[in-house]
Amino acid sequence: MTKELTLSDGKIAIVKDGKGLDLLNAQKKAKTSDEIPYALIAELCEIDGNFLVYEDILELPIEDVINLQGAISGKLQPSVQNA
């Protein structure tokens, strides 16, 4: 299920459900392991109908980056199943 966020400038970010391929692509595009979360945001997010590269994510206001990280972080948590 995709998630929609309104960014600080009023633009709409759509965060899609990721697949393993999205994570692999983010890992390949990141220059260091510290850049993987930003590259993953770029893989999973579309802002006002545009796909961005992770360098674009680095130029967003910090509040938007934090909100986008929060939107994808739940997707990275393993499911908890009742025993």
Give short descriptive properties of this protein.
single chain, about 80 residues, alpha+beta
Description:
This protein is of the alpha+beta class and 83 residues long. The protein is built from 4 helices and 4 strands. A 4-stranded antiparallel β-sheet has the order 1-2-3-4. A hairpin with a 2-residue loop joins strand 3 and strand 4. Helix 1 crosses helix 2 and helix 2 crosses helix 4. The longest helix is centred in the C-terminal third of the chain and has 12 residues. The mean pLDDT is 88.
Broad structural category: alpha+beta
Distance between the termini: 26 Å
Sheet with the most strands, sense and barrel status? 4 strands, antiparallel
What is the helical fraction, as a range of percent? 40-55%
Write the layout of secondary structure elements.
Elements: E1 3-6, E2 12-15, H1 20-29, H2 36-44, E3 45-47, E4 50-51, H3 54-58, H4 62-73
Antiparallel strand pairs: 1-2, 2-3, 3-4
Helix pairs in contact: 1-2, 2-4
